[in-house]
Amino acid sequence: MFFDSRRSNILATNGMVATSQPLAATTGLRILMEGGNAVDAAIAAAAALNVVEPMSTGVGGDMFALVWDTKAKSVRALNGSGRAPAAASIDELKSNGHRTMPETGVYSVATPGTVHGWETLLDSCGTMPLSRVLAPAIDYAENGFPVSDIISFQWQQQLAKLSAFPSGTEMLPNGGTPSQGDFVKLPTLASTLRAIAEGGSEAFYKGPIAEKTSAFVQEHGGWLSVEDMATHTSDWDEPISTDYRGVTCWECPPNGQGIAALGALNIAEGFDIRGMGAQSPDAYHHLIEAMRLGFADAFQYVADPRKANVPIEELTSKDFAITRRALMDSKKAMATVPYGQVLNGSDTVYISVVDGQGNACSFINSVFTNFGSGMVVPGTGIVLHNRASLFSLDPNHANHLAPHKRPYNTIIPGMATIGDELHLSYGMMGAFMQPQGHLQLISNMVDHDMDPQQAINALRFMVGNDNVILEEGLDPAVTRDLQSRGHKVGQITGYNRVSIGGAQMIKRNPDTGVLTGASEPRKDGCAVGY
Known about the structure:
Distance between the termini: 33 Å
Helix content: 25-40%
Largest sheet: 7 strands, antiparallel
């Protein structure tokens, strides 16, 4: 299946929401139309996505957000990701025969951060109570919703994972995975969302829900305790940024991987990407190599900065980019990609919202891989994420497993400003596709003057461990050229193209207030405004 769908930019002035499910996008829009701001709408849409796209996100996962305050002319960053349990132990895992972190199951579970993040964001930047913004999600969970095309495809792929524990049946409505058009209810998840709406984050992190969650994990040999749940907090951080040809690109700082996108942009800035032409072999080669270098540095250094030394200033500097750029050969792919030396010192949902006052919330929420750890807390509908699977078991690595430590996190919201005005609120779901998606979106917009929908529609590359994946539809001559330079090239086709990213973007004209929204044609979603 080739996703040959034509989409136009969506234009509005009073508010706009873009995300991967129409039911969630219209949920956010309703909140805006009822007087809510960008943050209110983003959380409402995120909660709705927990219901209508449950394999990708939920209260058992993590969240990050960038918030543009139009009055203060400033960007804020919220880290709503979870930490390893207090009992987490490299020695225990190794004694049980693990040489790397398990990808699923009890050891992959970190403390869920989503609910505390929602409440922290709403309390600081929102205008509506949690009960109001969660109401539409509760309605979908209790009264049902129709399953869309891509969601059906992703759900059906996870039958074995959900069957690993008896409680997985809570995510197997009518005894199996739903097909497109099936009408689904998730009653246990509805009860959990209602408890959170009535009791706030305390209802999730303390009391019966926390007790059920920790008991379930520990019953199967895991570490998560009621104390881990009760002591969880979110953090406001200083966002990090770089200037790319006059556009300031913002990311959340580590433990997120946004720094990989900034590093790649700094490297790419040293080349005439515009002169190479959009989607030309030269442009692809230089962006691919820049991204490989950005990843090499991120994989070496990104960790929880409260538990490890992460050289953020050096990694985002233009001087560091010069040293990294020097490793590139315009005619040949690097055989190996070493990380840079500094001085001491797939699945996810993304939501973009801009309100009528010009405030913006770039918001991302995830349980990591589809249905996370595969563990559904009995009687709650809570899918526990598997974010702890990204820890290293090398005690000398910055990202090694340790108690109360946050792991390397793939989910990254993006934002761009020009001067002291909001320019773009954007993001791209898709695990390690996310920073390379940010790189390609910004290059499309800045280097090739694409509008938001063109930038999202454009065919993409995806850098892997030792190869690069290209989308079907690309000129075969480009593939042959890249192969001649030494790139190991693969192709992604059909429904599998959902793994090459799910982008959403809203652009704001500071002179007129006109919002231009665009949504991923490889997903089921849309941008909506009024």
